[in-house]
Design a protein that fits this description.
The chain is an alpha+beta fold. The protein is 48% helix and 10% strand. It contains 14 helices and 7 strands. The strands form 2 sheets. It has a 5-stranded mixed beta sheet with strand order 3-7-6-5-4, covered by helices on one side. A two-stranded antiparallel ribbon has the order 1-2. α8 runs antiparallel to α9 and α9 packs antiparallel against α10. The radius of gyration is 30 Å and the shape is rod-shaped.
Amino acid sequence: MKHYALKPVVFLLVLASLLMTGCRNRETDTGRETLFALLETPELTEESRFSLINQISQNMLNNGEYNQLILFLTNYVRKNPKDQYNPYWLLMTAYAYQQNGAETIAERYFERIIQNYDDLTVKGRSIHMICLQNLIQISTTPENRIEYFNRLIAQFPNDVNKTELLVRLAQEYETLGEWNQVLKSYSDFLLRNDAQEIQIAGIPDAYATARYIVDFNNSAKSWTFESLDALASAVKRCISNYDWRTLDTYKSQVNFFAMSWRQDETQENSLSSFTMRDFMVGRRIRYNKDLDDSSTPNEAYLRTWGWSDYVSVWYLYFRKVNFPLDPEIHGRWEWAGIYYGEKL
């Protein structure tokens, strides 16, 4: 089950913050029986009834009487179907079920509130928004989480971090293999003013990932090779012939990097647009016959040397293209970057 780092909904605090003035627990001398008796008073105003039910419920919550609370609130809602605060009582019911470890039942109540009741704002908090945030936390299917994310964005655009939700949407769509929606979500994300600066818990490279997918989709992809052998052979041939012009065309045109082993590929200064001419003309470049032993089915390294007096050894980094959006390109190989110096 995924747990998202949206603003956490700690129900006990949320419910306490939603209580109207005068609804907090009174001293012990105001017994629960007295509150129940007052609740039966025919001439109670709607606000007074809300206050009494809230006080009874909060008392049960504080005492950990979750089963009693569930029975009390569900009976009240059943007997009073027109009470405008029923979404709030059902929200408290869902919380009680969560406290009892019954998240599946809690999920049904959150859904029931959204599907069957108009939204209700209590003390500035939207009941529907609270339900959606909690449904995202406890839902076990990406289809449902996608629906909840989209509802949050559509219904509460000014109350949620849309930039973050677009990234999380993209991840859910990727889980389902809905690649056109992945592309759309990342494209919309990149249009956000804070896309490059946002920090998303659990997703440290959101901007780089989105930038790569969108840019790769919009590129010609002409530098990819059908196989690793074909790519390695072509690069070696260019080095042997000192054909820097052709070698330049083999470099990935999206996020090609050149950096030391200690650098992070996402660092801005790791991206490189230099021409190979600057390092090949007048020098004696060599390469190993075979790829490095650390190569895997998805990544490979070719050790080369002679490029400069400062750092002679370069490892050319090849990787398999992971781009299911384009089946003709997915699984091909690209020269993605260069690592300077001997391997660490």
